Amino acid sequence: MRLSKRVENLPPYLFVEITRKIAAKRAKGEEIISFAIGDPDIPTPPHIIDRLCQAARDPVNHRYPEVDGLPELRQAMAGWYQRRFGLSFDPDKEVLPLIGSKEGVTHIALCFINNGDVALVPDPGYPGFSMGTLLADGEPYYMPLKAERGFLPDLEAIPDDVLKKAKLLWINYPNNPTGAVADLDFFNKVVKFAEQHDLAVCHDGPYTEVAFDGYQPVSFMQADDAREIGVEFHSLSKSFNMTGWRIGMVVGNATMVNALMRVKSNLDSGIPQAIQYAAIEALTGPQDCIEEHNAIYQRRRDLIVEMLNSIGLEARAPKASLYVWAKVPESYNSVDFTADLLDQVGVAVTPGVGYGKHGEGYVRLSLTISDAALVKGLSRLAGWRSTRRRIIRD
Ligand SMILES: Cc1ncc(COP(=O)(O)O)c(C=O)c1O
């Protein structure tokens, strides 16, 4: 048996070591408190589940769905964008439902990338951007996201020879893993840059609804002429606590949306229809759950940031997203620190280097931990002590 180079060359899963360690400790009966996973602990709101159950009982929904979803679903998606961002999209040409946004995020590389083409991806970043590129035999070019630039990429620093080979530009705000946000000014610059260098822009925005202190994230599609060069991915996973149901969407440039539809029509057979009806309910029904969930996350965010700072980890309260991005103590790297926390106090966090080499020096803590576990986790963190002497750097 000979595996493809594509599969052989896939980089190792960087969280594998830590995941194994957690499993081994749990197998020995140790209780591990995990801040590592970005998966809402709060259940899907009941009105959405009621609609799902009702639709599941209807035999019409037991058959193959259409790849591009129910027309009512595309209309509900367009309607949500209209109400939330004041943008109108043609539901038949500029909107496409996805089996969770990850599916579209990885598959869109197949629409643009030929062997050796480059996709510009953020580092640290959500792994789907680079993995999709690698699976399409392309090359990711990693744009560093640095604290001093508010974790926005420096587009002007991308070398000309890279830009000549680049076809796709990935951005993601509110950002995973840094929690950074971007404004319309930055998005307008991205559009200009993409026009100048003939790039297609993919903005990944699954966290636009998870925001705090009254802050309201903008959509990339609100930038001038964004629709000429780009699309935005959104997901019901984090907005409506629907990670397990697998439903998301892409909106924007009709050529890009159509290209993804053509690829998908050869790969999958659409989203189970009962889930599509649940999504229509989520998008068109009462929206108060979003504010309710954000109030819970905001309270957790404040408790986590306060505790991290009190034990000497520098962390800022994010304005949006589900993540606190904290600096590890100077004498540790992110993997060592993660292992030390796990061994000393049984708390799991995610090492920043797992999101790319520029994530080194940080760890990510997720706000999707139950209140009971959070209380325990915080008191354990309070007991953590550095076992290393500080390295004085000159
Ligand atoms: C930046 C980013 N994009 C996409 C996804 C995938 O979300 P979905 O559940 O819609 O596939 C995630 C999930 O954590 C994410 O953080």
Strand order, biggest sheet?
Answer: 2-8-7-6-5-3-4
How many helix segments? 16
Shape: globular
Helix content class:
40-55%
Structure explained in plain terms:
- This protein has 394 residues and is an alpha/beta fold.
- It contains 16 helices and twelve strands.
- The chain has a seven-stranded mixed beta sheet, with helices on both faces.
- α9 (184-197) links the parallel β5 and β6 (200-204).
- The mean pLDDT is 95.
- Bound molecules: pyridoxal-5'-phosphate (PLP).
- Pyridoxal-5'-phosphate binds at residues 38, 100-102, 105, 126, 128, 172, 176, 204, 206, 235, 237, 243, 248.
- Residues 38, 100-102, 105, 126, 128, 172, 176, 204, 206, 235, 237, 243, 248 line the site of pyridoxal-5'-phosphate (PLP).
